[in-house]
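batch job 7 of whatever, protein = Restriction endonuclease type IV Mrr domain-containing protein
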Amino acid sequence: MSFTLNELKDSEFEEFCYDLLHSMDFVNLSWRKGTGLLSSPSDQGRDIQGQLLRRDVDGSQYHEQWFIECKHYIKGVPPEKIQSALTWANSKRPDVLLIIASNFLSNPTKNYLEEYQREHKPPFRIKIWELKDLDNLSVGKKELRLKYNLIHDLSYLPVLNRYHIAYTMKPQLNSIRYLIELMDSLDADKRDEAFLMVYYQVIRPRFRTPISPDETVRDLMLDPVDYKSFRDKCFSMTSDDSHQFVYNFVTLALSWLFNTADITSIEDMQNTQKWLIENIETKISETNDELEINKLRKMIKLPTKMLSELPSKVQKSYDTYNYICEELVRKLLVEKLSR
């Protein structure tokens, strides 16, 4: 089912916008709900206001003031419904007036905004987010989508491995010694691809204080994060911790692994990278600062590379996921019967 916000009430749509902005690092957000009614008739021209931290090329920081007007319409938003927001923004002069439409702005409204900007040259920028933008901006924010019932199907269920499902249905009574015995027998590259993120959770490496802004997280680690260190850590645990540790470790590892291996989410992942690329390209077009342009051009390389590699990388992860389920999880399921 395609992404839609039509089932939300007016106040729920405003709250969705508020939560979306909060997830995007806006601060000092205020939802100006004027009455106890379903919508906000007393919002004085904007439903939400907040600030977004910006950084200059010299490293100094400042907050942009944003006014956000939320328009929940099944059809296109007409011109007269945005006039109060323009009036208020022209009076209070935020840095940005953002108009969020649950579907789209009508063509007369878009023409009206273009004419308004030509004739009035407002001291604030006008941005528009429509349904396709809200879809892209909320990609990967599963808690947000679940809160507003925007995930209408579980399309990934058919590609879940049956041993993954069986293992997570109820706690298993596996020993650490048997887990390590099985992990020792796995292909080393596939084992590290599957479990590297969870090694960190178990080893909990120490970090030193950085001495250079060019240092990476790996440069700062004082303890190795690899299979040998994980293995040593496991054998240092008491037998009392064994069963619960193994179950938590395996279920967390499978969750992390499937998150990167979900072949049904490739389109969502691609849309995220496309949005990042478009956002950076927009910023490049809006500045004449050569240092900033060069920085943005470097930034755009990563999502561009990820976009081109996504299908093959996800398929590779999915193959590894099934390998782990067949060669590790399947055998964990029968330990209590054979040992």
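notes: The two ends are 47 Å apart (CA to CA).
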